[in-house]
Structure formats: structure tokens, C-alpha cells
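Protocol check, entry for the methods section draft. Step 1: assemble the input record (protein sequence plus ligand SMILES). Step 2: submit for complex structure prediction. Step 3: store the C-alpha cells unaltered in the notebook. Ligand used here: zinc ion. Step 1 record:
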Amino acid sequence: MTVSRSATQHSMLIRRAQVFGGGHTDVRCTGGHIVECGTSLRPLPGEDDIDARGGWLLPGLHDHHIHLRALAALQDSVPLGPERIVDLGGLIAELHRVDAQLPAGQWIRGIGYHESVAGSLNRRVLDRALPGRPVRIQHRSGALWILNSAACAQIDLDGCEVPGVERDAAGRLTGRLWRMDSWLGERIPSLPLDLAAVSDRAARYGITGFTDATPGLAQHEVTGLAAAVHDGRIVQRLHCMAPPATADPRVERFTLGPTKILLDDTTLPALDDLAGTIRDAHESGRPVAVHCVTRIQLVLTLAALDTVGSRPGDRIEHGAIVPDSVVDHLRAHALTVVTQPHFPIERAVQYARDVPEEDRPDLWRLGSLVKHGVAIAAGSDAPFGAPDPWRILAAATTRQVNSGAGEAVPLLRALQMFFGRPDRPAVPRTLTPGVVADLTLLSASPQDITAHPASGAELVAATIVGGRPVYLAAR
Ligand SMILES: [Zn+2]
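Step 3, stored output:
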């Protein structure tokens, strides 16, 4: 690819591309939109000129489910999941290793923990491992933090009567905090989040937009993300899930999204309560995005939607278990299932052990849902899943684990799971005049990418957001 730069970036011509879904080769973008498609278009004076050399030009990839702040925090975190740590001895050794490298008093932030490493962790176990420094460890589900006593003392946890603070039968703190991310975030001295590094890496993957699916973001967190978009630390478009009362920061490339509703099997709301929560979001003008990873969560959500009705943009996050009996129901409410096709591969060992036999045929369905006309989109769920969309695409086209190869979809269909509009994730954007110029240009042909989708990350030639390159591969 060759690029001739001009003083202005407001107009750009991409030539000699294989354009997704079109017979043409050239695309002109002006003022943030595609304005002209054709063949043999000539560069205008002062226009940026990108020679695609036969590379594939796609609608920009949008990651429909990600947690940007948690992903940024990952860079200062210690992975403690079963991929790296196999037992309590390994966990203790890793904590000691990190302890030796950090300045006194700095918290250790562990992530990715799962019971398969060393059972159900609590404050006492962590105190025996590392008593002298505040330690907090996040469960891989994202639902739970486990703190040692030094950490509990620093945030004065014993004086807190907040839902989510677990206590044992004698009323003592276990150090286990459920669904308390925002609360903890306000109390723990945090290192500044490097959102720019997250955005930069995503641009290299060809990602032009994110939907942040973090539940219960506080207003200052939403405003902070919008500020990062405004000042260019985040170069992509950002659609941000938020509670109904959240004020729109009104920043270009930033939009407020649905209200995220979390369900936990241990604390499932009554049907009327869930229906009320959905109604509140709808009445404030927001669709809902309901976290459903079990059969009961999905059935309850559908029953609540039967009561209050669905609205355009309502979505099911994950849809980890979708029984045949609800497929018509999903379609009737026109719900989009935002799935993670890579989880059956990344979590194969855990699923093989933990998922009951009767749930396995319904686990992370993809191809069969597409076949039945269920609206589908994809998201990485990073940092709980790998952030590289090309690995997700590769997983979607193979799917030989758990659900069987019958759940695979062809690459052209898999790509469309990333082409959806931020507010309508299952409605693919096209490359036609009038649409926003969010584009992903690859240096290889459709045939090459189809043969090796996992290598797509290395083949991104340019990532273009609103008609401006935010990433150009070196040549
Ligand atoms: Zn998530």
C-alpha cells in the first residue's frame, strides 16, 4: 500500500481494492462519509490516495461487547487463571514473585481466577499467601473480587454494610465482594488507565468501533470514557452501555447505548422486578442488554419481555445456553444475541468439566441460531476473552469444540457479526455512498483471508474511522 499524504485528511480515495459486497474497486470518503464508489476513480487535488493493491476492503469491525476500562487495567494486572497457574503453590509463588517487584504499599491486582486453580479463595487463604501487601483478585466471571486482610483494612471494609460484601456465619468478612467494581474503584488507589494503548492495539486489529458493555457505569466513568474519545486517546467510535439516568456527555464518536442488566442465578430477581427494570430503561428511551449465560436467565428474561414488550435495540448478551424451545421466542421479540464464538475454544477445559451434559448441545450455539433466523452479533468480551477479532472469526468458522462443527459459519457470515451498527448490532453496514466511512482495509485478498482468518490481525493495512486513517501499516 502506498499513501500520499496531503495537508488535509478530509478527503480520501481508496483505489484498487476488492470491496466487500460490491463490484467496484474504488471508494472516496469526504467529510467522514463514503461519497463515491466506482472503478478508475482519479484522486482529486489535495486528496489522500491509498492504493489497496487488490486488498480486501471491509466495513470497519465493531466489537459489540467489550470492557475498555477493565482491559486497560489488565496491563497492570497479574494473570492468575488456570492457563498459567495450576494450584495453590503456583498461586503463592506468583504472588511472591510480583511482590518482590512492586514498591511497598502498592496493591497487587490479580485477574482471571477460577476455582480450578485452588478452590474457592477467601481472605484467610490470601493472608497465608501474602499478608503484608494489599491483594485483590478478580474471578474470571468478572462478578467477584477476593481481597486479603490488608486490602480489606485499607478500604475500611469491616465498617461497610453494602450489598455484595460477603460474611461468614459468624459475621466475619470473607474478603469476597460480589458485583462491586464501581464501589471498589472509588476506594482503591488506582494507577491511571492507559486507554490509548487499548485503542491503539484495537486499531491494529482493524477495529473501528466498540460497544462498552460494563454494567452499572457511574456517571464519572461514562464521562471519563467520553473524554478519552474526545481527546483522541480512544480513536474508535464508542457506544457505551449506561444506566437510565446517565447524562449524555455529547461528544463526537461517542453514543450512549442500552442499559445493561446483570442476572446471577443465586440472586435472580422476581419476574415483576425484572420486568420493572426493563420498563424503566425503555421509558427512559433505552433498549436493554440482558446478561444471560444460563437457561434460567434466558427464560426469565423472555418472560419479562413478554410482560413489558421489547423495543428495537434490545439484546441478549452472551446467550451461552440457548435451548431450542426459546428460539422462536427470541425471533418474535427481534432480539439480537451478542455472542462470543471464541469462548468454547478458550474455555474448553473448564466447560468440559463444569457444563452439565444436558446443556452441552445448547452451549454457545452459532450456526444453528443463524439458520433459524436469530439475529446475531459478536463481541470479544475482553478482558474476559481475547481481544483479537480475527481469532474470534477463526473460532466462528471452525467451532469443533463442545457444540460440534455444526455450529460453524462461513467467514463471510462471521464477518457480518462485526459489521453491525452500534445501535443495531445485527444490521450490517454496507460500503455505499452516504454511509459513515468506518473501514478496515486488508493487505490480502478475500481468498487469502478466508483460508487463514486467524492471521487477519497481521494483514490489516489501514483502519479508517470517520474517513480518517487511525492506523496505517508500515510498508
Ligand atoms: Zn462482558
